[in-house]
Amino acid sequence: MVYLAPRAPGDSVRPRRSCGVVVRPLNFTVRAQAMASSQEIYVALLNEGVEVWRPVQARALGGGEFEILGIVPAGESWEFLPGTRVRCKEHHFADGETGLRAYEKVAL
Predict the structure, then answer these.
(1) Is 34 helix (H, G, I), strand (E, B) or coil?
(2) SS3 state at 44
(3) Which of the four pLDDT bands, split at 50, 70 and 90, describes residue 15?
(4) How is the chain split into domains, by residue range?
(5) 3-class state of residue 49 by DSSP
(6) What is the pTM assigned to this prediction?
(7) Integer distance in angstroms from the first to the last C-alpha of the chain?
(8) What is the C-alpha separation between 31 and 77, in angstroms, rounded?
(9) Longest dimension (CA), the chain
(10) Are 39 and 57 in contact (CB under 8 A)?
């Protein structure tokens, strides 16, 4: 048996939903899973004249290895492109913060 929520008054065109059902867009679950399995790492920007690091999302593969996700913004040149598998290690940045930085491409 299906229970429907009462119709909205007037000329409303909103669709009715089954009572007690939470509706989320299809991509909500996909995005939540992708975000849960990704982590922020840092990739060096090339041709900047000084040391510059870009925080990027990466999928953890285990053993200190990650796959870089996302896209390279226009005007930037990354040391490792999205889709590349890299090894990461802890790095102390000039501002005193620490984070994981990509330092080596993983051969497939």
Answers:
(1) helix
(2) strand
(3) very low
(4) 37-105
(5) coil
(6) 0.66
(7) 54
(8) 26
(9) 68
(10) yes
